């Protein structure tokens, strides 16, 4: 069962609620995306129609955490560089976070010329055995804390 959520803009940060997947009985997940230091003149945007899926390896191991990732988008709209700068727990979250971002597609803002762009993206992975709402609540609290 999948439940899709839309995008919400909160105080200059972009929060995207992921598809909340019921993995098994009493297992619920949520992923929140925050673009750190968003630029009003941003050339490249992530295709928002694509749901952000909780990485399967994290879900099956009931792992929650966060990551901060630096990405560079080329003038052609391709992911040029990706570097995980923070993750908690680092050894477990960093690879799935990078793989998730590598799967994204980017589109150019209509009004701006194509150029290389650097972005810093935070992903929060939240897990609950209670409900999808509990997983979302955990993520809303987690995004307010430092990812260390």
From TrEMBL:
<dbReference type="GO" id="GO:0055085">
    <property type="term" value="P:transmembrane transport"/>
</dbReference>
<keyword id="KW-0732">Signal</keyword>
<protein>
    <recommendedName>
        <fullName>TonB C-terminal domain-containing protein</fullName>
    </recommendedName>
</protein>
<feature type="signal peptide">
    <location>
        <begin position="1"/>
        <end position="24"/>
    </location>
</feature>
<dbReference type="InterPro" id="IPR037682">
    <property type="entry name" value="TonB_C"/>
</dbReference>
<feature type="domain" description="TonB C-terminal">
    <location>
        <begin position="39"/>
        <end position="134"/>
    </location>
</feature>
<dbReference type="Pfam" id="PF03544">
    <property type="entry name" value="TonB_C"/>
</dbReference>
